[in-house]
Amino acid sequence: MIFEDFSSAQSTVMWAIFAVAFILGAVANKTNFCTMGAVSDWVNMGDRSRFRAWLLAICVAVIGVMVLESTGITSVDSTLPPYRGGNFAWLEYILGGIIFGVGMTYGSGCGNKTLVRIGGGNLKSILVFAVIAVIAYFMLNPFPGTDKTLYSELFYGWTSKTSVSLSTPQDLGSLLAGNLGGEVARLRMIAGLVLAVGLAIFIFKSADFRSSFDNILGGLTVGLAVLAAWYITGALAAISADGEVLSWTDYASAESWDMLEDDPDARPKDVGVQSFTFINPIGQTLRLALNNFDNVFITFGVMAVIGVIAGSFIWALISRSFRIEWFVDFRDFFNHFIGGILMGIGGVLGLGCTIGQGISGISTLALGSFLAFGGIVFGSAMTMKIQYYKLVYEEEASFIKAFLSALVDMKLLPAGMRKLDAI
Fold this sequence. Notes:
Mean pLDDT: 93
Strand order of the largest sheet: 1-4-5
Oligomer: single chain
């Protein structure tokens, strides 16, 4: 679609993202698509059906990006955030993922689930949302009157020293081409096909999963939503300017934005090829509020956040599942508060959440996304196991004993290091 001005293109993109996010929120509510729930089912009951739904979303997104790039429709080489970026911050990916995984366990769900739960009437999630918003905002934006952020104060000084500057993008195809030689596009296709086929075999070998309409619907919808966002931001809108047709993202760049010299603050914020992620966007909603809801601060992320909440809310009304929920006690309140803090930190540090890195990032085949995904699953599973050991053994189960026993359960330590009987 070609537009004569940026505002028309911007409006079309924003409303298209809202529509996709609306569907995502409604279906996630209807199918109970939940990444934390997927880990919980696996750890506590040995049921991997919802985990397979998560993997199905990844599989669909990977195949979709392969099609978009191989046909020349769009590229995900330069994205927001820079999944394929040459700065390989491996420690931040892993640490951010683990912190986020712990946080989503305490907060009863990841960023997307928090929005879905808000739409369904859960007041606990409003607290989690507010805490994530503040933490994510100040992870990237300086405290008033200073040039310091939470990230610069807590992490940059030591985590940045471990980052590796790669000579190629960090996606699997580029890394293979850089080390083995060959055409990047072809190797990306091969790597994507191997991953997608492997995932599909694992996903659909389960008869229980094949018979679960909701899990299949949830996985397909989330994967297609991620794919749709890549298309919308990368290929949907173009602008005819001075006889030249520029993409929506190119037109909004610093080099081409006509109003930049007269009013730098008027340049649209966070315009780029991107797909769904929810922690930084929750922080962007705070930025919008702090700037008196100025339209220039309405971004892809803000529309995604509003869309998911709205979709979940409408489904909750249609299905008559809307329920007001509040904290059981102070401990419940405290757990959700801590969960919000950790998700805000981990989601920004690790460059995304269970959707952002776990699906959008992996769809680009970025190595850092796989590390963050592993960190999230590990952090969440470990937290659940420790909580369960402490619940069963009470005073006998110190944190160290529960932690070591959980590592043994996860086959990361030898059985001889177990401190508590397996449960």
